Amino acid sequence: MTEVSRRRLFGYAGAGVALAGAGATAGALAAQPKAAPRVVPFHGEHQAGITTAAQDRLHFVSFDVTTDKRAELVDLLREWTIAAERMTRGEEAADRGAVGGPQHAPPADTGEALGLSAASLTLTVGFGPSLFDKRFGLEEARPPALADLPRFPADDLDPKRSGGDICVQACADDPQVAVHAVRNLARIGFGAVAVRWSQLGFGRTSSTTKDQATPRNLFGFKDGTNNIKAENPDELRDHVWVRDGDGPQWMAGGTYLVARRIRMHIETWDRTSLAEQEAIVGRKKGSGAPLGQAEEFDPVDLHVKGAGGVPLIPEDAHVRLAAAESLGGVKILRRGYNFTDGSDGFGHLDAGLFFICFNRDPRRQFVPMQQALSSKDTMMEYLKHNGSGLFACPPGVRPGEFWGQRLF
Amino acid sequence: MTEVSRRRLFGYAGAGVALAGAGATAGALAAQPKAAPRVVPFHGEHQAGITTAAQDRLHFVSFDVTTDKRAELVDLLREWTIAAERMTRGEEAADRGAVGGPQHAPPADTGEALGLSAASLTLTVGFGPSLFDKRFGLEEARPPALADLPRFPADDLDPKRSGGDICVQACADDPQVAVHAVRNLARIGFGAVAVRWSQLGFGRTSSTTKDQATPRNLFGFKDGTNNIKAENPDELRDHVWVRDGDGPQWMAGGTYLVARRIRMHIETWDRTSLAEQEAIVGRKKGSGAPLGQAEEFDPVDLHVKGAGGVPLIPEDAHVRLAAAESLGGVKILRRGYNFTDGSDGFGHLDAGLFFICFNRDPRRQFVPMQQALSSKDTMMEYLKHNGSGLFACPPGVRPGEFWGQRLF
Questions:
Q1: Cα separation of A115 and A7, whole Å?
Q2: Cys-Cys link to A100, which of A96, B7, B75, B80 (CB 3.0-4.6 A)?
Q3: Contacts of residue B65 in chain A, CB cutoff 8 Å?
């Protein structure tokens, strides 16, 4: 056997190890309904994992590059691209994989995804501002839009959850598939990169296609109703994809990723009245309808007034401050996830929203939006931003290319 | 409307809010294959979540009781039982729930599970040794089998990840459903309990019924092949359920839960050869077959010898040390989960196995097994136990009873 692929040996296309062995019965697979082994194409004009229908689970990782040799960095990106493309097809990270190689060498895949489907895995890479320092001779290639984020009011950033030279966003419908992918990239990168921080998200808080139902965040509200959707090419062109002439040519077709680890003080929120919660958000908790409207997708009307001429959507409501109308037309593509990371040591869950957004120029999109929210949004009383990252995601790769090839 | 139930308003039995609204189409649910809304019965002779077919996701929480009033503790358990039973049915934590109550009161449910199915949720409660101190007059009721665990060789326990007065194990096929349940129990317990620690598990590492395929741990190996299975009442009677006469009568039909947070040094493991990995585990990585056998479920034969009379399963292999044959017949019911909690600050993922087992008497089962493993198992070079908990899980409740009623 020259190649052991996850799917060929173990999965849908293969014999199904799940059915082998004395203890398994013919009903084994039937008893465990699995999502279809959906494969998201890896190659394309843009990277997958941005407008791809948001998968249910996330593992996000930020790496420090530990080598100072440009050639080693390029080799790593080349190796990573091959492994990433394989894993998104549902295969092992490398030929021969976990069990097909020589007995006396470490396996070329870690094995915990054997038997699992591709689970819609996408791997999306981004380069942080710190990568563009003199180590790799990339100073001149740094896009002006990759400007360090300013300090926002109420920021409480933990350096151990912030920054990094390279990020990889792994999204999948099976968390074990996402974790496996990140872990194997880290393994392949041993000696060249080290994990700086990583974050699991257990539930998506955004829809990125029109056929996805809007999920709920840990405030219990539908989140991202007015998100940019994949079916809207005009909005993607205006707000997401970097165009020719926007900056260095290597970023054309790319986008900028902003990640924010937003701790939610859910215990305080849970002791707030329903009316107060809805006033803070500007939507009904049940339906997700904007205040003053009937249905979730009714347009937000910031001008409806109630008794005494008071706006139904308060001046400091989240939907008002985040509305394109309030921000000179600014929009972003949101792709965040709920998280719970144990407890905070003070009797509470350490839970919140791992916010991810994609934008064509954060200086004109995420930054002014967050300036408005962090200074005026009543919701900020219940939030603490304690992690932050900004990354330039290069355009998609064609077969044979590697991640960020046009940068090097 | 007098009652707003998650399923009635939003779920399979109801109108399906997912389908409402201008942006949703008739294909919305079809595009998101969901597990069937399986409901695991809450009432019974034993608690659910022990022999229940292991669900895919875990949220485990340990609470400190912060009140010193016995009556408040009993009230809490009563309230919790009602909420737990509702949530396992796929309903909100309380009548009226997230959006059906008065506008000027905090909602009776936090809302993030609106629209989600029951997802096979089980909630399993346990009482730690520290609950049986003089605060609640329970000293006499403490079962001898709930003896504090000894210190094992190589233990490196973090008090912030260990112990606790009460634990709740929430398992579900949807992690948001498990997190929602724990969060609402914590909310209901405000003023009486505080979260001491909590742990998410993203993938099960055990099967507890014969029709479940054996999953893989983060060493890439199938885990728990020889687990006690629900279909084996003799083994459950001998090794899992506390019998009349085993100790205090309130525990008859219950069991003891041991939780261990086992950090795996996966980076070191990944640089070990396949042969070495298989020798450490005592099984083939691909098939899961015991060394010297052909199929996963072939019986482990500790006496097969290879070239030169050397045992094929080494003396210090994990399967040998953990085998009932090596431990005087001792078995446990395993129900663990893979975890990844960000990074360790030293360039590695903080990943491992959140080990959970159930046994009739840990003094005769888990403790001698862990003594053997912690002193002889070669695998220990790749492990660090940094969290630990021991809890007495009372028997199941009948309708109208509350968790642990026979204790009070």
A1: 7
A2: A96
A3: none
